[in-house]
């Protein structure tokens, strides 16, 4: 019981620290938008986010080492977040060959590519709907490093600007971006 109380106290402290970690925008009576100081919809979205955070951090949810808290997106409903940040284009996916039975290898108990130093830092796309380009570039950087090379930082902006068949910050397809990169 003491461990649970300690965990809850720690979670409360971390959530309060998250409030201090983000700069307070001008206006809104000096309160950040995720503090319920904005429009009523933001306050409702914040309440929904707080419920989801409590559920994800609850002892009954086995989420490994992940800890969830308030962030710059907490004042958005999931639908708003999707509309702003997840504007991907649907694209026909290629078919993959199934692995024959008995050929699979057993998976290790724990494996984390970050331990191998082949995963780049997370990049912030801000309001650009370029998740398709960020994911393609991050995958290529990691695949290159997994092959034994140094982890290199490649240009996401070049893929956003130059990949034809995509719409820059207005959305795109990972498949179209990979096809474009194969032709470059």
From TrEMBL:
Superkingdom of origin: Eukaryota
Organism, scientific name: Bambusicola thoracicus (Chinese bamboo-partridge)
Keyword Plastid in record: no
A Pfam family per the record: Peptidase_C1
An example Gene Ontology biological process: proteolysis
Gene Ontology molecular functions: cysteine-type peptidase activity
Keywords tagged on the record: Hydrolase, Protease, Signal, Thiol protease
Keyword Protease: yes
Organism placement in taxonomy: Eukaryota, Metazoa, Chordata, Craniata, Vertebrata
Signal sequence bounds: 1-20
Family matches, as PANTHER family: CYSTEINE PROTEASE FAMILY C1-RELATED (PTHR12411)
Ranges of residues in domain Peptidase C1A papain C-terminal: 107-183
Protein's recorded name: Peptidase C1A papain C-terminal domain-containing protein
Family: Belongs to the peptidase C1 family.
């Amino acid at each position: 019981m003491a461990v649970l109380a300690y965990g809850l106290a720690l979670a409360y402290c971390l959530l309060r620290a998250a409030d201090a970690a983000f700069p307070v925008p001008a206006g809104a009576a000096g309160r950040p938008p995720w503090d319920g100081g904005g429009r009523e919809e933001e306050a409702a979205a914040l309440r929904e986010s707080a419920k989801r955070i409590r559920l994800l951090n609850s002892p009954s949810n086995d989420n490994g080492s992940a800890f969830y808290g308030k962030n710059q997106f907490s004042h958005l409903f999931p639908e708003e977040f999707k509309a702003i940040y997840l504007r991907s284009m649907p694209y026909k996916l290629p078919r993959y060959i199934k692995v024959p039975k008995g050929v699979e290898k057993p998976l290790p108990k724990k494996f984390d590519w970050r331990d191998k130093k082949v995963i780049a830092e997370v990049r912030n796309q801000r309001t650009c709907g370029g998740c398709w380009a960020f994911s393609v570039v991050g995958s290529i950087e990691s695949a290159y490093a997994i092959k034994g090379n140094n982890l290199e930082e490649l240009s996401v902006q070049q893929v956003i600007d130059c990949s034809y068949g995509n719409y820059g910050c207005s959305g795109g397809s990972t498949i179209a971006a990979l096809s474009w990169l194969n032709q470059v």
